[in-house]
């Protein structure tokens, strides 16, 4: 049975039982399901599929039961039919090294960001991704160049995974003209048309409608304009956190995406905290994956600290979207190793909770897997780490030596006119006039 066909579809409230049963009997609409997959993340033949590591979470106490996207009767049937375990790795050597390099890139980049922030090279709010690398890598490294990613304010690593060069991301953080947004975006607004990174968004939930629109564009081009695409539909990934899942845009876009069968995957990076608010104290039912079946789409929960589990779920969801079978909601339960932002002293989370998740570092887990399955040697992994260290050092040097944006760029990209507002009769920018800002200090 496929991972997603095993998703538990919630039954209606008893008071609605008559209505729902009548509706079911009068409707021939098929339930969403996935094709059978031997490498399903909930297939007990996969050594990495165990979810027992989640049951020891220090935040599990308030849940009605451990988070599982598979109902107990399915689990029991699986156990009865369980074949012998197969020791074949879930990934090839090349795939494992690609995953490891991308996760090391994300972690090293963010650690360097912290250094540069405290040295005064970056300004404003900077939100780091440490601890969540398995989600970005597990999903984005499965995409093609034509597929799109919509991010959040924690967007540096999403940009790196999508292929935006580290030097372009670092320069953007430094506010330099060589950044991927020419220094006008900064930490929370990474964008690259070349890589189909459709932006980081500072306010929670505001990127979800953009992602839904991108998915609609893909479907419209393919089905209405008949633009040829041998790979099927281009897919959009919408990343957002647990705090977003009680916002209106989330529900509206899930409804539209399922109604129109859009090629989109909604990826919830549930790091259990919305700044200083525990997810368990802010949500009536903390199992976010259940909100997918409420709209008729599959809802899946996966251990977001295990890149191999994330990758298996991601592969099935992306392929499903590419075939035109509609959206999927994936809840990745993960954890951030730093405060909400670099301005957050991180005093609200308990030390034992942070220590617990530190032992589940996704990079350490993947490294252990690679070595145990003889996919690479320790020296090969150190070579990758050295390569990334050099790349990040070069990115900092590039960003530091790059020029600041000129004053003439100040009003560009404010309006649809690429030159922006403020062009004088002579065709030159008014802001180039030395007297342009005269008197503004008094204002």
Automatic annotation (TrEMBL):
Q: Which Pfam families match?
A: E1_dh
For this UniProt record, the keywords arranged alphabetically read as follows: Oxidoreductase, Pyruvate, Thiamine pyrophosphate
Give the start-end ranges of region Disordered: 17-62
The EC number(s) this enzyme carries: 1.2.4.1
The positions making up the signal sequence are: none
Which cofactors, if any, are listed as required? thiamine diphosphate
* Entries under InterPro entries matching the protein: DH_E1, PDH_E1_Alpha_Subunit, Pyrv_DH_E1_asu_subgrp-y, THDP-binding
Low complexity bias spans: 25-59
Tell me, which GO biological process terms does this entry list? pyruvate decarboxylation to acetyl-CoA
Q: Which SUPFAM superfamilies match?
A: Thiamin diphosphate-binding fold (THDP-binding)
Q: Which domain of life is it from?
A: Eukaryota
State if rRNA-binding is listed as a keyword. no
Catalytic reaction(s) noted: N(6)-[(R)-lipoyl]-L-lysyl-[protein] + pyruvate + H(+) = N(6)-[(R)-S(8)-acetyldihydrolipoyl]-L-lysyl-[protein] + CO2
GO MF annotations for this entry?
pyruvate dehydrogenase (acetyl-transferring) activity
User: Which parts of the sequence belong to the Dehydrogenase E1 component domain?
Assistant: 102-405
Q: Which NCBIfam families match?
A: PDH_E1_alph_y (TIGR03182)
Biological role stated in the UniProt entry = The pyruvate dehydrogenase complex catalyzes the overall conversion of pyruvate to acetyl-CoA and CO(2). It contains multiple copies of three enzymatic components: pyruvate dehydrogenase (E1), dihydrolipoamide acetyltransferase (E2) and lipoamide dehydrogenase (E3).
Quaternary structure? Answer: Tetramer of 2 alpha and 2 beta subunits.
Instruction: Tell me what this protein is called.
Output: Pyruvate dehydrogenase E1 component subunit alpha
| Native organism | Ananas comosus (Pineapple)
